Amino acid sequence: MNDVDVWRAAAAATGPADRAAAEAGVRLAYRAAGLPEPERIAWAQSPRAAARLLGAADGPCAPAARGRGVREAVRSAPWAAERERAQQRLGPQGWGRHWSATGGRLWENTEHLADRVRTGVVEALTADAGEGAAAEERRLRLLLLDAVLGQHDAAWLCAFDTQEGTPLHGLAVLARSAGWWWPYERLAVLCERPVELHRDEAGRLDRGDGPALAFPDGFELHAWRGMPVPAEFLAGLGTLTPERIREEENAELRRVMLEFYGYDRYLRESAAEPVHRDETGVLWRIPMPDDEAVVMVEVVNSTPEPDGTSRTYWLRVPPTTRTARQGVAWTFGLEPEAYAPLRET
Fold it and tell me: Which residues pair with 285 in a beta bridge?
């Protein structure tokens, strides 16, 4: 298993943290930054729980008890120094190639996860804030800037040497052992990893029958193909009807409904009328209230299946499509005049 695969697995790891290894990683990271080890290490069941803990005005994790934040010294400065050394050694083009072959392969997915967690924490902790919601959101976003992302820092850790004795070794040990964490002068707060993670083939959070990301304390994020959705919305997908889909006022949620229900099924059950047909297929248009129309081309595979039947495919095409030929040609990156296959497949 190469380093990219190791770090991809670390970013997606679920289940209980290795607390002993994670705490050792914290101490290594502080020492590598030239700082005294934290006096105390506390654990939280999720980033939401950690934010709530650190947001207390008094107590063992309050600002007066934990001291100043040391994220810059522990995480940002070592990372910047290692990147500078790598760029000097490899040159700008060499660094670009190196990043593309390592961290660049993980960056989009880990950033997506981190952004969703940040948003989920803010939404969960401001839901009942009332008139003070805006101020509470600002406070939480500042607090989240103090976080080191642990396993979700896998992309940039993947690009550097993190073996024992290197400046990033402690951070790497922790990232392979736990979730997010907050470093302060006298205190470090570490989070458990998720207990569930569900993603689609593109690496986006995705689940139709439950939380796509869940932590042991019940902090959950729901998503369909990367798009955040309410939990109650997912619960209703199994009872969808064309009428319910048309009545949904939120255009993004309506698209999720259509994807889940199936465009072909929606067309059949809505008594939709084709808008164009030719030798390439049939063009269908589904008007959507307050949104662009969904346009599909129905094509039949001319190569029979083993049982002798011909399979029908539905191709989604741009809403500006006016003919079936134009739609099929678009799927091949061609203009309609250039699309003239000897045999359609």
Answer: 295
Tally Cβ neighbours within 10 Å of residue 162: 20
pTM above 0.85, yes or no: no
Q: 104-143: buried (b, 16+ CB within 10 Å) or exposed (e) per residue? A: bbbbebbebbbebbbebbbebbbeeeeeeeeebeebbeeb
Distance, CA of 252 to CA of 230 (rounded, Å): 12
- Would you state the structure tokens that stand for residue 153, as one six-digit string? 């820092």
Name the residue type at position 277. Answer: R
List the Cα angle 102/108/111 in 5-degree steps: 110
**Dihedral sign, Cα of residue 262, residue 265, residue 267, residue 270:** negative
pLDDT tens-place string over residues 32-62? 999 999 999 999 999 999 999 999 989 999 9
The one-character DSSP state at 240 is -
CB-neighbour burial class of residue 213 (10 A; exposed 0-12, middle 13-18, buried 19+): buried
Spatial contact of 193 and 178, defined as CB atoms under 8 Å apart: yes
pLDDT in tens, 271-320: 677 899 999 999 988 887 778 888 888 888 767 666 666 777 878 899 99
Condensed to tens digits (0 to 9), the pLDDT of residues 128-173 reads 888 888 999 999 999 999 999 999 999 999 999 999 999 999 999 9
Strand order through the sheet with 312-317: 274-278, 281-288, 291-300, 312-317
